[in-house]
Amino acid sequence: MKNEIPAYNNQEEKRKFFTLEIIDTDKQLFNLMKTLPKSYHEKEGIWRGLPESSYKLYNSLQRKNLGSKNLNSIENVINAIVNSTNLLVNWNKGLIIKYFSNYGIEEVPIYAKLSILQHFGCETPLLDWTRNPNVALYFATSFPTKSLIKNSIDEYFSIYFIKKEHPYYNFNSKTGYEFFISKNPKIVLKRFKEFKKLRFSKSYINDYFNKNKNLLNSIYKFPIQRIDDEDREYVNHYTMSNYNITAQDGLFILNADPFLPFEGSIIQKINDLSKLNLKPKIDINDALVGNIQNFICYDIHKKFIPQITEALYSESINKTDKTMFPDFNRLKDEITFEKITQNIR
After folding, report:
1. Is residue 2 part of a domain?
2. Is the peptide bond before 185 cis (omega within 30 degrees of 0)?
3. Domain range for 187
4. Residues in Cβ contact with 165 at an 8 Å cutoff, skipping those fewer than 6 apart
5. Which of 176, 236, 191 is nearest to 210 (CA)?
6. Mind listing the pLDDT tens digit for each residue in 182-200?
């Protein structure tokens, strides 16, 4: 029997985890679409699209594990990360190591390896996100499911938005010390600032943050992390290992919990933090309210899919299969001698 993945039965269930905004009318859709360019250009947060509103935010490793239950702790997930990345290192006579060594990278970071595994469909604890809301809309509307409409929730698809103020948007794999949960949040970047102050070389800092031992220890302590690489950053995980990630403005969120979906895992971790003797003491109610307010789910009625698809495929937005999944086999057909010489006099 096919493993049944837990899902939401109704939208009231979702309200426990997200600020839920339901888009049912033309006016509501227009108002949402009007805000998207500003959100993107001002880098207000990150997005993810799903074709069914009932889907929970499970990563592929969790979806597999929900059936097998081979992984039962964060330690088990970390061991699965080690095993899968080791298999990748040895795959095809060490091709991956040879590839990275061409660029002077002798120890390939774990997140770079996970990015490759994710891209080629292997089970990983990574969840794909994007900086571009139009990309989220593309993935929510371009691959419709064939599920029957049993409940009203089945009439909707979803795009998710994590604001920058969200504690786990700001907590990322390169700092390891950021927390934005207290009423008077302070960014704690002690180790990172020390590195900069002492003027260590960029390669030294990269090596420190990308040491596999350090990364695995970081995952154990902080099992939810944002993983990304942007221009001019001081530290690089080399996650942009394929052109699809670039085309899709992509990044990842790691969730090392073996069973809880991302939204449930966040609340679990906030509950855990509230029990620690932290100063200032975390107010669990404030933390949870802040979490939900800064994690938005837009449930959009599926009747708008043709309208949204038409906008995405327009010349001005141009989010299509071709632009989302670049096919370099088309190069010789699209960059031709005729085009090269067209305006040469």
Report:
1. no
2. no
3. 11-340
4. 180, 290, 294
5. 236
6. 333 444 445 555 555 555 5
- The amino acid occupying position 196 is K
Residue 262 lies inside a defined structural domain of this protein: yes
Mean pLDDT of 235-255: 92
- pLDDT tens-place string over residues 127-140: 999 999 999 999 99
Is 174 domain-assigned? yes
pTM of the predicted structure, to 2 decimals: 0.88
84 within a domain of the structure (yes/no): yes
Tokens at 35, concatenated: 């805000």
Please list, in sequence order, all residues whose beta carbon lies within 8 angstroms of the beta carbon of residue 192, skipping any fewer than 6 positions away: 174, 175, 177
**C-beta atoms surrounding 4 within 10 Å:** 8
Number of domains in the chain: 1
Closest alpha carbon to 190 in 208, 172, 177: 177
Over residues 76-90, the pLDDT tens digits come to 999 999 999 999 999
Mean pLDDT, the chain, as a whole number?
86
User: Which residues does residue 162 pair with via DSSP β-bridges, in sequence order?
Assistant: 46, 295
Distance (Å, whole) CA 158 – CA 117: 26
Q: Specify the amino acid at residue 156.
A: Y
